């Protein structure tokens, strides 16, 4: 019998549990007739959200012009609008020639890292991270070096610890702000410290800002490009989250900072974009409407708005839980609950997630999927209706009660556990 086809060896280093083993098991259960509540993906359309009407209308009005390829960097008018949007924020040396429209931010992350990295080059990536960043680094022959964003520090990085990881092979620092999976929003002073590190060591800033309009309780979002000045910076954004249009696959990358320093990198991104011809054309006609039209996301993030009330439901459920802790998310579409330290010993987030799905019909993402060195967290999306999230956390509590109760039969109770059990 012929030998099986070999696959790329570095794929063994790639983790993407968001759509991985548990998601495949979920499909099996659904094929058997089970109904699942799937909280593993931040996919607004799957929870009843629609892209704003004025964006839909912009595509419909231009559908006659969508048959040909467009320029590899995107429609000129769309790139002009994106450049103007970032220039208005204060980004330096931004122009349409330094804007790249892609099939979602995911494609542009891959293109940017492919344009930057030589074999063995290092990229500083947050832990927890959105695992596409570490995967794309690995698959472009680089090495992700994780800087810790600890729960006790609000899931914000320590700039000194980050800088200590810089080596002669370091090429870039990745920032995800507002953060996926934790919901942390980075304060200006922290961003200024990180910019200073990038300037000192001549590193590229790669800033995933896809959730830039989604913040709660007046948490201020600070775009990093204006703070970076002439430090080369790539800011990623798109229509998928703020404008609830994931399936349109419209993202952009904006290169700012010193033009002479980043000219070769810009040309490399242009070449790689040309090799795939162009991004999805119809969705690009919605960019101008999205960036210059009515703000439809802010009302959802304020008291009474659906995202705000969903977040409130999760915060209250975790506060009422006997077992859960939570750093209240200040932005993005996720919460990252943890298991309280005094009952976390021996806890296995993957086993918990599988049990939760099999016994209670709820799919979450184990925390270790986000490249963290611990096994006591999980991620849920805030997209369901608040009532459904309250039901989800009631089910989570039942599973934790059972699993931790079983563990107590094997491991003696701590004094605090004993008091809680009385």
Mind summarizing the main beta sheet?
Answer: 8 strands, mixed
Number of strand elements:
15
Anisotropy-based shape: globular
If you compute it from the alpha carbons, what radius of gyration comes out, rounded to the nearest whole angstrom?
A: 22 Å
The share of residues in extended strands comes to 5-15%
Could you tell me how far the N terminus lies from the C terminus, measured between alpha carbons in angstroms?
64 Å
Helical percent range?
A: 25-40%
Residue ranges: pLDDT <50 for 5 or more in a row?
A: none
Structural class estimated from helices and strands: alpha/beta
Order of helices and strands: HEHHEHEHEEHEHEHEEHHHEEEHEEEHH
Strand order of the largest sheet: 2-9-8-7-6-3-4-5
Number of helices in the DSSP assignment:
14
Mean pLDDT, all residues: 93
Structure description:
- Helix content is 38%, strand content 14%.
- The chain is of the alpha/beta class.
- Helix 4 runs parallel beside helix 5, helix 4 (104-116) crosses helix 9 and helix 11 packs parallel to helix 13.
- The chain has an eight-stranded mixed beta sheet with strand order 2-9-8-7-6-3-4-5, sandwiched between helices. A three-stranded antiparallel beta sheet has the order 11-15-14.
Structure described in brief:
With 422 residues, the chain is an alpha/beta fold.
Task: Supply the key terms.
422 residues, 14% strand, three-stranded antiparallel β-sheet, alpha/beta, 15 strands, eight-stranded mixed β-sheet
């Amino acid at each position: 019998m012929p030998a099986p086809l070999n696959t790329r060896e570095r794929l063994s280093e790639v983790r993407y549990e968001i759509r991985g083993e548990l998601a495949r098991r979920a499909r099996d259960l659904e094929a058997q007739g089970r109904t699942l509540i799937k909280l593993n993906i931040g996919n607004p359309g799957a929870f009843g959200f629609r892209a704003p009407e004025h964006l839909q209308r912009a595509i419909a009005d231009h559908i006659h012009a969508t048959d040909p390829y467009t320029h590899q960097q995107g429609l000129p008018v769309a790139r002009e609008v994106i450049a103007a949007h970032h220039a208005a924020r204060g980004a330096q040396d931004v122009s349409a020639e330094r804007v790249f429209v892609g099939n979602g931010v995911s494609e542009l992350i891959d293109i940017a890292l492919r344009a930057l990295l030589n074999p063995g080059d290092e990229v500083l990536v947050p832990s927890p991270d959105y695992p596409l960043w570490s995967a794309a680094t690995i698959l472009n022959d680089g090495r992700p070096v994780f800087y810790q964003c600890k729960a006790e520090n609000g899931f914000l990085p320590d700039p000194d610890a980050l800088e200590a990881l810089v080596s002669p092979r370091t090429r870039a620092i990745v920032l995800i702000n507002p953060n996926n999976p934790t919901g942390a929003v980075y304060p200006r002073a922290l961003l200024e410290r990180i910019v200073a590190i990038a300037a000192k060591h001549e590193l590229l800033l790669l800033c995933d800002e896809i959730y830039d309009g989604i913040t709660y309780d007046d948490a201020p979002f600070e775009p990093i490009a204006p703070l970076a000045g002439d430090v080369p910076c790539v800011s990623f954004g798109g229509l998928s989250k703020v404008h609830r249009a994931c399936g349109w696959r419209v993202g952009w990358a904006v290169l700012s900072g010193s033009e002479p320093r980043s000219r070769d990198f810009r040309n490399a991104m242009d070449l790689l974009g040309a090799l795939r011809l162009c991004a999805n054309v119809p969705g690009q006609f919605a960019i101008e409407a999205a960036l210059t039209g009515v703000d439809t996301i802010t009302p959802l993030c304020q008291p009474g708005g659906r995202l705000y009330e969903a977040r409130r439901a999760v915060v209250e459920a975790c506060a009422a839980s006997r077992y859960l802790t939570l750093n209240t998310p200040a932005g993005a579409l996720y919460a990252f609950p943890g298991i309280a330290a005094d009952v976390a010993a021996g806890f296995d987030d993957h086993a918990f997630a599988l049990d939760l799905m099999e016994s209670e019909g709820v799919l979450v993402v184990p925390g270790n999927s986000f490249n963290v060195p611990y096994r006591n967290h999980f991620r849920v999306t805030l997209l369901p209706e608040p009532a459904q999230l309250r039901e989800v956390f009631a089910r989570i509590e039942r599973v934790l009660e059972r699993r931790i109760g079983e563990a107590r039969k094997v491991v003696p109770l701590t004094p605090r556990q004993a008091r809680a059990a009385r």
